[in-house]
Amino acid sequence: MSLSWIYHNTHDLKCREPFGAVPSGEKVTLRLGLQATTKIETVLLRLWRNQDRVQDAELHLEKGEGNKKYYQVEIPTPVVGLYWYYFVVITGGKVYYYGNNNERLGGEGLLREQVPPPFQITVYRDFTVPDWFSRSVMYQIFVDRFYNGNENGVVNNPKKGSLLHGCWDDTPIYIKEPETGAILRWDFFGGNLEGIIKKLPYLKELGVGVLYFNPIFESPSNHKYDTADYKKIDSMFGSNEDFRRLCQKAREYNIRIILDGVFSHTGSDSIYFNKEGNYPGLGAYQSPSSPYFSWYRFNRYPDEYESWWGFGNLPNVDELNPSYLKFILEDEDSVVRYWIKMGAAGWRLDVADELPDEFIKKMRAVMKETDPESILLGEVWEDASNKVSYGEQREYLWGEELDSVMNYPFRNILLGFLLGHLDAWQVHRRLMNLAENYPKVSFYSVMNLLGSHDVPRVLTILGEAPPEQHVHPKDKAKFRLSPRQRRLGIRRLKLAVLFQMCFPGVPAIYYGDEAGMEGYTDPYNRGPYPWGREDQDLINHYKKLIGFRNNFSALHQGEWKTAYAQGDVYGFFRKDGKEQFLILLNRSKDTEHTVTVPLSEDSRGGWREIFPQETKLLEQQEKRGGNEALTVKLPPLEGKILARVRP
Length: 647
Description:
21% of the residues lie in helices and 29% in strands. A hairpin with a 2-residue loop joins strand 36 and strand 37 (627-634).
């Protein structure tokens, strides 16, 4: 081979400057290092902007280090979107390609003799995310399962044909039609908005600053993703005035509330569709004369219509229909404006990939006009910077749509590490890929979740419960971790929470995870909060770590950098002005590790452990080749926070 050395690393400022995503209009400098046994004839950059090929640009020799030469090119970024590139090198009459690695994670690439996968640069229109959000810890509540605030425990306004649990500690259950799987009766526990008001002191003591509610508008189901009336709180939860009062009370505790917006579909049993005839007006199902008829897409009226993933009780809407846009977004009393004026601090968009970009842009504009400090959060399961849905490149993080997304990739990385599926170096590479692809303001405001209503309880996963697909449906309801599994799961969960509370982004707690709840997926991950049976040790662990995050600016806005990534141990620095922290985790179940972490010049001296124990200044500092390092002993399944105390 003519090329004996080639180097481009997207994480190395010598190769790409600046790091990561850039605002439009900023120039990016790219460098490729080369060493060849024959004369280098041509070095080209092959570039695309949003799938449009740009004319190849030639790299020019910038400098040499012995036989190693660096070639440079500067690219403009006039339009927002995704820029893709790789290099073409011609030497000795042969053509070589240098592009992304096989995992497409950025960082150091690979040399090939075929066209390679490209590197990504995200270019965005500069934007900001309200500071209150990025500083907060979030708590997700499935309202029916959180707390019944009525003094006598009576359930508000039970729905016809529903199943009311006689005991709060029951296991959720589905009663389905055997052949079709359709829900025959929805089960309810009786949680309501008054219950959340009464538990605000607990939530404040826990340290959360944002409550995200699963849908709370009128609906026949317990999950309420089949909206019946967008402007009415479900009567089982309370009234619109109860919601206003909740928002006011929450603000007194410095807690804000985000609502779940389900705008890609409605319920069939709704004012708008009215298939079941439970509402007095004309729904789209009943007559083409209905004011809502144009919202829906009928293939053969009235019984064949588009629905969400084929569920007939969830008819899809045309989100860009002028009448629908006015109702949801544009009118002075639109759904989005109405609830923000009632006290909501933002919206979470259900199934964001089912919504057109134009709809999301309009929604963001309406929200910011109504309240510039409001937050728009999207449900996205993949890397949101390069998400493609229905053949369209999504524009979530280009500066005109979402403030934040649900960070399922973060969850997958962290759980994969704790369960032994990823080693520490793989964790580093995947986290760097997110940091590189997301605008910094997005990376520091993503919803870093461990659990949600759509995945098994995190404790069940970390306790090594059998894979759900291998468990008989009848056994899922009664499955509980063994005492050994639960101890293992809790120790791992404590590590996960340590990582989560110290990492950039907005940590999100799914109600009851802090209390030690277990359960496979829906409905078992939606059990009632175990009031009076909580794991208080676990709750105290959450409180302590949330307290650290809330009290130290470095843990929510400080610089992040991997400090150590080998085998079972991953660690990172957080720095902000005078505050410096080192977080280390040992995921091994049985091996103690002693690690030596190199320190930069501005990080030398004055380190002590502050979690799980508070210690005096550490003496394990040593000179290695003139550089200072910190040596730390980590027992199995233990994490530490070290803080630098300035002299």
